[in-house]
Amino acid sequence: RTLIGTGGWSGAAVTHRGDWTGDAMEDVVAIVAGELRVYPNLGTGTLGSAIKVLTGLPTDSKLVNAGDINRDGHPDLLVQHSNKLYMYAGKSAPTPTVAAPVIVGNSGWDVMSLSAP
């Protein structure tokens, strides 16, 4: 076990899987205090400074990076909140971004748990 962060992670929804910075290394993605952030993998067992990608998400959002859902070569995210499931299509390198959300699950999602391989 290696400590990679020392604060600001309380209540965070965290996932990985996907190169969001174009350096061929998987980065960490988190929703912290309603902000979607990418933490670059520095390849040294540490993370770089957070890159703020999106703000205004509900603080109880659940998050999973399910890979390249739309097959465009970039990682995508599934975010669960307000009893719905949303897909945020990602764009990587050098500054990660996400497209406007698309509802992929219309109801019943508050009782579900998200997971990905």
From TrEMBL:
Matches recorded under Pfam families: FG-GAP_3 (PF13517)
Tell whether Cell inner membrane is among the UniProt keywords. Answer: no
InterPro entries cross-referenced by the UniProt entry: FG-GAP (IPR013517), Integrin_alpha_N (IPR028994)
Keywords from the named record? Signal
Answer yes or no on keyword 4Fe-4S. Answer: no
UniProt protein name:
VCBS repeat-containing protein
